[in-house]
């Protein structure tokens, strides 16, 4: 028979991209017990126009504690977002974290007016750490939305709704680019921090902040390649679906053209994943190798199917059957990333 049944298991995510727990030691809550000066009201001489002096050290310590509290809250938010039992979304609530950072910034702004040169160096360093972490929080927020869009695209892919999958993966890519811009801002802010001025800052650890930036960057690189590559697979699957319909209808010339388009599109996905193999960190490399293997196999298979459909169109039935057999054999080269 000229008709060949061809089933491709839907491509999945190729690995978990969740990241959690990459920040900070636990901080002790600081309590400020500043007493307000009482107005005795005895006479004009007793009333001075001196305001209570600003305790710069206390404000620096308070800002440091607020920053560490923000770190801990982000840790908890990321952990919760990546718990499938407690959350069906990877997005995190950033407003409470941002509020902590605003408190820290306000304390430092107040402290500036009375700070010595040495204290000012520490204030500026801590402000840099706050700016860095604020950008990092924005990156986490955008990345969480990227994961959600990716999951949506993956679900559409499983349902063979390839056009919807393409749109979702494009949104995931846009969110990933947004996260990439924010983590770049975090990196720039980090590089402006004076490490010597941070020596007397108790809670904030620059080493841990640097590690957090590195880890988020690694996830973003992998997510960018993955969202692009699987979007390209979805484009190819859309053409492949059209080719199957044409083949079922006996429209062999049209089927051959659609299979050829699909083969070219699968090859584009293959080159994306192949490039990713050398660009992503070691933790994601195996996933990219599996995906590049699959994409190349699909490209080769659909190339055989295009030749087979053309042979059927020319009346060379045996050649057509042989090409379809070769295409199905090409699919056996790689393991299914979902397994």
Share of residues in strands: under 5%
- Low-pLDDT stretches are 1-48
The average pLDDT is 84
Shape: elongated
Give the total of domains: 2
In oligomeric terms, what are we looking at?
single chain
**Which class of secondary structure composition applies to the elements?**
mainly alpha
Give the H and E element order: HHHHHHHH
Rg value: 29 Å
Strand element count: 0
Description of the structure:
The chain is an all-alpha fold. It folds into two domains: 55-204; 232-339. 69% of the residues lie in helices and 0% in strands. It contains eight helices and no strands. The protein has helices spanning 56-81, 95-112, 117-158, 162-191, 206-248, 252-279, 282-313, 317-330. Helix 2 packs antiparallel against helix 3, helix 3 packs antiparallel against helix 4 and helix 7 (282-313) packs antiparallel against helix 8 (317-330). The radius of gyration is 29 Å and the shape is elongated. The two termini are 32 Å apart. Mean pLDDT is 84; it is low at 1-48.
Task: Pick out its properties.
69% helix, single chain, mainly alpha, 339 residues, disordered N terminus
Write the layout of secondary structure elements.
Elements: H1 56-81, H2 95-112, H3 117-158, H4 162-191, H5 206-248, H6 252-279, H7 282-313, H8 317-330
């Amino acid at each position: 028979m000229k008709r060949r049944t061809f089933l491709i298991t839907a491509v999945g995510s190729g690995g978990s991209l969740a990241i959690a727990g990459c920040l900070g030691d636990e901080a002790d809550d600081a309590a400020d017990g500043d007493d307000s000066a009482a107005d005795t009201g005895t006479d004009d001489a007793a009333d001075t126009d001196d305001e209570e002096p600003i305790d710069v050290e206390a404000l620096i310590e308070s800002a440091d504690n607020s920053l560490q509290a923000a770190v801990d809250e982000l840790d908890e938010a990321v952990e919760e977002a990546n718990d499938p039992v407690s959350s069906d979304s990877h997005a995190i609530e950033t407003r409470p974290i941002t509020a902590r950072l605003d408190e820290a910034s306000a304390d430092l702004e107040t402290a500036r007016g009375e700070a010595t040169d040495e204290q000012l160096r520490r204030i500026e360093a801590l402000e840099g750490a706050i700016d860095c972490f604020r950008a990092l929080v924005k990156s986490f927020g955008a990345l969480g939305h990227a994961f959600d869009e990716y999951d949506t695209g993956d679900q559409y892919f499983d349902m063979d709704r390839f056009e919807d999958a393409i749109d979702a993966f494009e949104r995931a890519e846009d969110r990933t680019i947004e996260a990439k811009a924010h983590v770049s801002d975090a990196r720039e802010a980090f590089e402006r921090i004076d490490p010597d001025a941070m020596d007397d800052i108790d809670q904030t650890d620059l080493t841990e902040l640097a590690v957090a930036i590195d880890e988020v960057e690694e996830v973003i690189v992998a997510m960018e390649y993955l969202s692009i590559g699987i979007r390209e697979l979805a484009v190819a699957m859309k053409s492949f679906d059209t080719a199957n319909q044409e083949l079922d209808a006996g429209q062999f010339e049209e089927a051959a053209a659609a299979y050829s388009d699909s083969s070219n599109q699968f090859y584009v996905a293959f080159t994306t994943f192949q490039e990713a193999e050398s660009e992503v960190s070691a933790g994601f490399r195996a996933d990219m190798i599996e995906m590049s293997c699959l994409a190349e196999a699909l490209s080769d298979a659909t190339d055989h199917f295009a030749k087979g459909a053309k042979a059927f169109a020319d009346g060379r039935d045996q050649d057509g059957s042989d090409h379809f057999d070769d295409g199905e054999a090409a699919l056996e080269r790689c393991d299914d990333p979902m397994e």
